Amino acid sequence: MALGEFHIERALGVQWCIETDEFKFRVVVKESPLTRRGVLSTVASVYDPLGFVAPFILVGKQILQELCREKVGWDEDLPEHILPRWELWLKDLPHLAALNVPRSYLPSHFDSVMRYELHNFSDASLNGYGACSYLRAISETGQISCSLVMGKARVAPTKLTTIPRLELSSAVTSVRNGDVVKRELEIENLEEYYWTDSKVVLGYVNNDAKRFHTFVANRIQRIRASTNPEQWRHVSSGNNPADHASRGLTSVQLKESNWLKGPDFLWQQNLPCKEEMVGEVEMTDPELRKAHVHAVKMKEVNSLVKRFTKFSDWSRAVRAAARLKRFIREFKGHQPRTKEATSLEERREAEIFIIKLVQEEAFAEDIQKIKLQKENTLNKRNKLRQLNAFLDKDNVLRVGGRLSRSALHHDVKHPAILPKKSHVSALLVKHYHERVHHQGRGMTMNELRANGIWILGCGSAVSSHIYKCVTCRRYRRATEVQKMADLPEERTEMSPPFTYCGLDCFGPFIVKEGRKELKRYGLLFTCLCSRAVHIETLDDLTTDAFMNALRTFVAIRGPVRQLRCDQGTNFMGARRLFSELLKGIDQERQRAFGCEFVTNVPSASHMGGVWERQIRTIRSLLTVMLDKSASRLDTTSLRTFLYETMAIINSRPLSVEHLHDPNGPEPLTPNHILTMKSSVILPPPGQFCKEDLYLRKRWRRVQFLADEFWQRWKREYLLNLQQRQKWQRTTRNSQVDDIVILQDDSSPRNEWKLARVVEVHPSADSMVRKLKLLVGDTTDKGQPLTKRIYLERPIHKVVTLLESN
User: What would the pLDDT profile of 223-256 be if each residue is shown by its tens digit?
Assistant: First the structure.
């Protein structure tokens, strides 16, 4: 120690001058890199456990928080907009040496203390929040001393938070500071005061009636656990020293502020009076939890009946009621509880008890009239009057009927009456439907009545249950259907033949090449507009063979704009090949050479009925033609047969109108347009008349005949497609999360796989006809056997078991 300097003791970075009895801060700034790591190292090097310089350190913490918010790397250079602020804070750091904090709370000349007071202040802003606690001492002679005991300053959370919530967090910090100071000072009869400039917080603390959301409720609970609402007071922002802890100060501002000595009103003899009715909670406060008012029906005979809605099985409901009645008997008789299973008599008694509860709720007025023997006052249309209902010795409402003289059991002759729309009735229907092993409506109704149960409207109740029964749906329900879709635009547009085609393969046919027997296949192209067909021969079902046949077809019939097909491997390979070839071509050439593939979902042959029907026609013709030929054909003979079949099919009439009229026009056939096909895509503009037939200009003759074909095509064929032959009714659309079983013609129905709908594909008319399914393949314990399998299927291949709603 140099001559003339005071003796300094150091403890964990805090320096204590023994001669002056004051705490000092002499921070030696080490050379740290101007990075996020260097900022953290420098800010953390200032040790201030009691928060004497908390407002100053808050500025450094805010710079570090901004670096974290902008996700600056640990060793990256500081951004240009932050670097000047950090350098200014570093230059200001050595100036803390001029700040002296007295170690003693009371000056040396202070008289005997009459009472101590602890004043805790809190405040918050968008950048931070903090709290500070001051010990105020009043001597017997009226002297006053006030000094800082503890301060806290924290940065605001990075997540956007409202000011009332930040003010509430600072109030919690103030309460925790007060608890720590009170515990460590060990001063008897210490009076505590809590000050805040937020009237909203005061309203929260003083509230006893309204309920708040979780964030506010938890903090209010913490505040009320250590303080009373009477201890909280309001202070203006100008007199609140905690305002420095929420905004930050430089070293010079910290020395000149009231942070260390407290606000001026604490040095006065009398404290400000507490304001009344400060900070009431408004009904529009967003933190206020909205109250939900539930309408209660005035007519509620038995709330116990609603308890049975928790049960999904009749036997469990009966056992629960039997155990409840046994417990009541044991409780009233002061008997020890037994855990034995319920007996048959107890369950029978519980059944009667449940039935009586339901009857008292559903037929209260009617039962009262029957008790008074006023059955004649019942409405003539009342079903109880028609059933000649009466009350037995147990006050159970039963059917009178006409079987009183039979030898049947009393409960069978006079079954108990239950309403149709009761949950207990639904449980009974389910119970006896399962007892007859999911037989039909008649069997279930007979089983109900044979066990002494008569449900009003039993037929519709049983039918409704069978309709919803998952087991019955699995065994007997038909697959889904939907209203037939509208025709696609391609089938209603006048276009050159084979511009829009549907295609499919058929076969095989056995041919003989030398001594070898080979398989050959047919490839059918069907024009969606004129219904003309074209047949090519395939050597096999590979993509290469299909591409060769397609090029042959295009060379003969002209370019094709769209091909519709199923998802055969050869068709999908060609589709992929076309897409790869057209990647590097501009859009104009793509339109000129491109061919669009439209595929149906798997197992949806009905979606290609327009060309599937022609395959049946071809087979019927080939059967006759091949029967008259040799038993062995070569490839050339087979191709000839196919071309002859094609010519016959293209000569078929498209409509039956005038078919048997000898004086009517010639029936319209696809050959009318095929034999006149030219290189011109559409006829040239202008009107063609009948006289053009006799002109020498052959092109006008051809265009007149083509024009006449399209006129008759619209009049005789297209209008016949208006009517829907089947699927004429709109049904429920399948929805995501429906549970279905997938139809598989190769396995029995009880082995069809379970699936869940994960996607639906609505058509243009918003009707769902295609689904994407997640197939369930699990063990008995529910564990998956294989990886997840997704399939696309039409709705006609699934049976719905459970609707998602």
Answer: 988 999 889 998 888 889 999 989 988 888 888 8
pLDDT-derived band at 586 (thresholds 50, 70, 90) equals: low
Assign 765 a pLDDT band (cuts: 50, 70, 90): confident
Structure tokens at 268: 């006065």
Q: Distance between CA atoms of 313 and 423, rounded to whole angstroms? A: 11
Picking from 132, 135, 68, the residue whose alpha carbon sits closest to that of residue 107 is 135
Cα–Cα dist 210/204, whole Å: 9
> Is the distance from CB of 122 to CB of 177 less than 8 angstroms?
no
Residue that has been written with the tokens 């203006």 in this structure: 236
Report the amino acid identity of residue 30: K
Judging by DSSP bridges, how do beta strands 500-513 and 562-565 pair with one another? parallel
The answer to whether 181 touches 197, Cβ cutoff 8 Å, is no
* Cβ partners under 8 Å of residue 591, min gap 6: none
Three-class SS of residue 79? Answer: coil
In what helix (H) or strand (E) does residue 646 lie, and over which residues does it extend?
helix 635-649
CB of 490 within 8 A of CB of 510?
no
Beta strand ranges found along 250-301 (DSSP E)? none
Please state whether 740 falls in left (phi above 0), alpha (psi between -120 and 50) or beta: beta
**Token pair of 507 as six digits:** 């076969």
**Which of 494, 402, 537 has the alpha carbon at shortest distance from 711?**
494
Q: How would DSSP label each residue in 634-694?
A: -HHHHHHHHHHHHHHHTTS-S--TTTT-TTSPPPP-THHHHTT--S-SSPPSS---GGGGG
Do 224 and 211 contact (CB within 8 A), yes or no?
no
As a whole-number percent, the residues of the chain with pLDDT over 90 amount to 20
What b/e readout covers 568-606, taking b as 16+ CB neighbours within 10 angstroms?
bebbeebbeebeeeeeeeeeeeeeeebbebebbbebbee
Q: How far apart are CA 79 and CA 21, in angstroms?
A: 43
Look at the pTM and tell me if it is higher than 0.70: no
Token code pair at residue 723: 């009517």
pLDDT value, residue 388: 85
Sign for the pseudo-dihedral over CA of 486, 492, 493, 498: positive
Q: Please state whether the peptide bond connecting residue 157 to the residue before it is cis, i.e. omega within 30 degrees of 0.
A: no
pLDDT mean across residues, the chain? 81
β-bridge partners, 390? 398
> Any idea what DSSP says for residue 717?
I
> Angle, to 10 degrees, between the axis of helix 458-468 and the axis of helix 423-435?
70
- The burial of 31, by beta-carbon neighbours within 10 Å (0-12 exposed, 13-18 middle, 19 or more buried), is given as exposed
* Proportion of the chain above pLDDT 70, given as a percent: 83
pLDDT digits (tens, 9 = 90+) for 612-634: 877 777 777 676 666 655 456 78
119 strand-pairing partners: 134, 193
Are 752 and 467 in contact, with CB atoms under 8 Å apart? no
Tens digit of pLDDT for each residue in 250-289? 888 888 888 888 888 888 888 887 765 455 666 667 777 6
Residue 803: DSSP 8-state: -
- What CA–CA distance (Å, rounded) separates 698 from 294? 86
Q: Provide φ and ψ at 124, rounded to 5°.
A: -150, 155
Kindly provide the residue ranges of all beta strands, DSSP E only, lying in 701-780, ordered along the sequence.
Answer: 739-742, 754-762, 768-776
Closest CA to 427 of 480, 465, 370: 465
Would you report the helix, strand and coil content of the chain in percent, each value rounded to 5?
40, 20, 40
- Mean pLDDT for 637-651 is 81
- Torsion sign, CA atoms 686, 689, 691, 695: positive
- CA nearest 755: which of 377, 479, 362, 364? 479
Nearest residue to 761 via CA among 737, 730, 794:
794
Q: From the CB of residue 168, how many other CB atoms can be counted at a distance below 10 Å?
A: 30
Please report, in angstroms and rounded to a whole number, the separation of the first and last CA atoms in the chain: 85
Rounded to an integer, what distance in angstroms lies between the CA atom of residue 108 and that of residue 145?
11
